[in-house]
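Continuing the series of single-chain predictions for the mutant panel. This is the parent chain; the variants come on the following pages.
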Amino acid sequence: MTKIGNTFSLFYSPVSGRTLATELLLDEKGIDKDKHYNKNIDRSVLIASVESYTLAKNNDINAPYGALGENLLIDYNPYHLPSGSRLKIGDVTLEITQHCTLCKSLVKVDAKLPKLLKNDRGIFAKVIESGKIKEGDDIYLLG
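Parent structure:
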């Protein structure tokens, strides 16, 4: 088990809209109170790196944290991790399932954003072990 970073910000999406959180409760169906809960297990959690926001900012795009639709914003770039890689964050174990596909909602932030973040928007994960993730939690890459 190797420490690779920390959670930076946490978000979920109830029907009422995007919400910043200090902790998230997760189980095998996804993030509690999120509108995507129990919809597509392999896309339960979207993880993005602060590097994506730095890339946007370096290209004169001011995107507020959460604008990429992420649930976990972390201070580590996980985009190189292959499917099947596992992360331990707080009490939760996540398994990387796929890279995030770009969606048209990014155009609302800036028309250049989808092309710019083609390979740097985020990765999806499913929950293997239930629990809580809190802002600032250590992130470990499991062997």
